[in-house]
Write a structure and sequence with these properties.
The complex is a heterodimer.
Chain A (H helix, E strand, L loop, with lengths): L2 H27 L3 H27 L3 H30 L16
Helix pairs in contact in A: 1-2, 2-3
Chain B lengths: L1 H16 L1 H7 L3 H26 L2 H26 L4
Helix pairs in contact in B: 1-3, 2-3, 3-4
Classes of the chains: A mainly alpha, B mainly alpha.
């Protein structure tokens, strides 16, 4: 394996691990439900995509690498959609945001 | 390189264990569901890394695709269930 390929793989995997660690700490530490959905939808998606990009660089041009590209596209589409559905469900059943303390207009 | 993937898998296991605290002590049911969704998303990466550890990448990537689809559909179904009007 080429050295540049290995360095790129290790860099991408460690960057993705850092983003996922930040997402986990955000899930644990943020004060509100809606800010927790912020942590899980953005930083987790980016972390998973970076780690799988590192695995694609490690793999090269094979069939498994094509399937990893499919996984990456599916994660980029599905994870924000699922989190948005959960946030919409919480808004419909009147979970109050922390700062304003009232349910925003337009819904319910 | 296998050793790097092993250490990454161990670190990822520690990272996955953190939202479990939120699942256990979440104030509302939505916090628990968001924590479970986060665990499902990170388990995808963990299964890929385990495939590289066992040198059976093709089989484990198929398992990963099925797991991703099932986690997404489960999250959407729970959101649909919880979004009923009172």
């Amino acid at each position: 394996m080429a050295t540049a390929q290995m360095i790129a793989c290790v860099t991408l995997v460690i960057l993705g691990m850092g983003f996922m660690l930040v997402g986990s700490i955000g899930i644990l530490r943020l004060p509100d439900f809606f800010s927790r959905t912020h942590a899980t939808s953005k930083s987790d998606t980016l972390g998973v995509m970076l780690v799988i990009a590192g695995l694609i660089v490690f793999e090269g041009f094979t069939q498994s690498s094509l399937k990893l590209v499919f996984i990456e596209i599916f994660i980029a589409l599905s994870n924000p959609v699922g989190t948005h559905a959960l946030g919409r469900a919480a808004l419909k059943s009147r979970v109050k945001p922390l700062l304003t303390g009232r349910v925003p207009r337009g819904e319910s | 390189m296998t050793q790097f993937f092993l250490y990454s898998a161990v670190a990822l296991t520690v990272i996955i264990a953190v939202p479990l605290i939120r699942v256990v002590k979440g104030p509302t049911v939505y916090d628990r569901v968001v924590g479970a969704n986060t665990i499902a998303t990170k388990t995808i990466v963990l299964i890929c890394l385990i495939g590289y550890l066992f040198d059976r990448v093709d089989m484990f990537i198929d398992i990963t695709l099925a797991y991703a689809v099932l986690g997404f559909i489960g999250s959407l179904a729970i959101a649909k269930l919880l979004s009923r009007e009172d």
